[in-house]
Amino acid sequence: MQHFSPASLFSLKGKSALVVGATGALGGAAARALASAGANITLTGSNSETLSSLAEEIRSLGVDVTTYCGRPDNEAAVDNMFATACQSHPVDIIVCASGTSVVKPIDSMSSDEFDRVMDANVKQSWLVCRKASDVLKAQQRGGKIILISSVRAHFATAAGTSAYGTSKAAINMLTRSLAVELGPHNICVNAIAPTVFRSALTSWLFEPEAQDKREQVLSRIPLGRLGEPEDFSGVFMFLASQASNLVTGEIINIDGGFSCN
């Protein structure tokens, strides 16, 4: 009888992935994890310098890398992203890590700011998922779609998150709805919900002058620390690989125990 190795479930050799929003902290962590497991990757992002640097780094791991500079903010851009991803390989894994945040009390947030958050976090994710659905169903080989939610989708523990938290709650329902819709096509749709992770948007919270605010956040985290991009990689690899082939419609918290309180 052939020996079964559970570790082999995490290999992505022969797979191809599209990472939308690869120039962000979590998108970059996803791209590095995929490459380390052997996947060929298409990276997208709006910062051309960061995109080129990440692509060069990942190519050193011996996988094929292509890039597309832009945001998924219209149908044509999303079509072009997938065309780039599919030009050499069928795409098996789609990661949507693109988004933004505006943290303000509701009475000082403009409707334009609210629209910007909802567009970046909800509509653009929906556009990526719609195209992913078309492409994966046409390929008839199943696939994985991974979205980025937040613990703020579940818990309103801080003022100023009426737009961001609402947008991430929408991502949770998008995840579950598509899991039901795409399951018959062997397409798994899941989301990861982090607590505060180090990124360009949150770097201020890691600075010494933000100690009081940081300690306020940490008071609800049993493990006593904020997230680093590397903390994202393990759960992400589970969802991207064969190890999660019977997992769909799940929102997995990476929050140090935040959601236990």
Structure write-up:
This protein is α/β, with parallel strands linked by helices and 261 residues long. The protein has one domain: Rossmann fold. α1 links the parallel β1 and β2. α1 packs across α7 and α3 packs parallel to α4. The chain starts with 15 loop residues before the first strand and ends in a 7-residue tail after the last strand.
Short description:
This protein is of the alpha/beta class and 261 residues long.
Keyphrases for this structure?
single chain, 261 residues, alpha/beta, Rossmann fold, 7-stranded parallel β-sheet, 7 helices, 40% helix, globular
How are the SSEs placed, and which strands pair?
Elements: E1 16-20, H1 25-36, E2 40-45, H2 48-59, E3 65-69, H3 75-86, E4 93-96, H4 111-139, E5 143-148, H5 164-182, E6 187-194, H6 211-218, H7 229-240, E7 251-254
Parallel strand pairs: 1-2, 1-4, 2-3, 4-5, 5-6, 6-7
Helix pairs in contact: 1-7, 3-4, 4-5
